[in-house]
Write a structure and sequence with these properties.
about 260 residues; mainly alpha; about 75% helix
């Protein structure tokens, strides 16, 4: 057998296909890699290039159990689903920040001033887009996209391709991470919501004390002005919170895959 036949052996080709399926699923869902502004061809080429680099690194499972086309299709689906879950975990952080900014914007009274979010093609308030842009800046400043690639490389050791099974325990952990979106949203919006609650209480007291005061009209300007001041004051807290969330991302991703084994 010459070297070319060894490289193009059926086992090697199947191994490469499984690696591409996992990486492709991750890059479709992960932040930055799966951004709508990145052309699909570029994402496909990037997934293939990274797969070529990872194929030699990723250990080949000795128990692939692939005997026909149907078993190969099933293994590819499992690997693609694994990559999707891998990419969705960091996306949960961005989703939580966007939801928190949406909550803050609506309570400030600018819910009608919605813009189209280029990431999700959905309507979002300016406050939500501000927090989302801040999240992406922190994401890139901390090299979280490199962290995702490093965690993907570790995933091939923790859960080798072809020998990975989607179990109930792992799915439960994944759903637990998904519910963390609401915790992130509340913690992002808490400073603004807390301040606006005080403003609403004060305006209610003024309305009882001064009957002629049109609190409804005056409240719009006051809540918007105070809301933006609170958003500015909360930005340093939000950056520190995001730094902590992204720092815990790699062990969370690796631990998630380990829970499926």
């Amino acid at each position: 057998m010459n070297g070319l036949e060894f490289v193009l052996s059926p086992e090697s080709v199947i191994h490469f296909m499984l690696v591409v399926a996992r990486l492709g699923g991750a890059m479709v869902a992960a932040p930055f890699f799966g951004h709508a502004a990145m052309p699909m061809r570029v994402r496909a080429a990037l997934a293939l290039a990274v797969a070529l680099a990872f194929t030699a690194y990723a250990p080949m499972s000795t128990a692939l159990g692939i005997e026909n086309t149907w078993s190969l299709a099933g293994a590819l689906i499992v690997e693609a689903a694994t990559g999707l879950m891998f990419g969705l975990v960091p996306q949960f952080i961005l989703g939580g920040v966007l939801l928190g900014g949406e909550m803050a914007g609506i309570h400030m009274g600018i819910g009608l001033a919605q813009l189209v979010d280029p990431l999700t093609n959905a309507n979002a308030t300016p406050v939500a887009l501000l927090f989302q842009c801040l999240t992406m800046l922190v994401f890139l400043a901390l090299d979280v996209h490199h962290l995702i690639l490093r965690a993907l490389a570790r995933s091939f050791t923790v859960a080798p391709v072809g020998a990975f099974h989607l179990g109930a325990a792992g799915l439960s952990d994944f759903l637990g991470l998904a519910t963390g979106i609401f915790e992130i949203a509340v913690r992002i919006a808490a400073p603004v919501l807390g301040g606006l609650l005080i403003i609403d209480t004060a305006m209610g007291l003024l309305a009882r004390a001064i009957k002629e005061l049109n609190v409804f009209i005056m409240g719009f300007a006051v809540k918007i002005g105070v809301g933006f001041l609170l958003v500015g004051a909360a930005l340093p807290y939000a950056v520190q919170f995001l730094q902590h969330q992204f720092a815990e991302l790699e062990p969370t991703l690796v631990g998630l895959l380990g829970s499926f084994n």
